[in-house]
Design goal:
three-stranded antiparallel β-sheet; mainly beta; 3 strands; 59 residues
Length: 59
């Protein structure tokens, strides 16, 4: 069984230049334990990310 995330609540705290969300979600772990998390998340629009990977060292 893999970990599963269930969205409980998504409340917009601010919708000015960027959007600030207050997100509540449940994380179900592999052993079946459910953990509730609360996070504040800024939505800053489109973006890009690079994950550097060294094939020789597998890091």
């Amino acid at each position: 069984m893999t970990q599963q995330i269930t969205l409980i609540k998504d409340k917009i705290l601010s919708d000015n230049y960027f959007t600030l969300h207050n997100i509540t979600y449940d994380l179900t772990r592999k052993d079946g334990e459910v953990i509730r998390h609360k996070r504040e998340v800024y939505d800053r629009g489109n973006g890009a990310t690079i994950l550097l990977y060294n094939a020789v060292t597998t890091r």
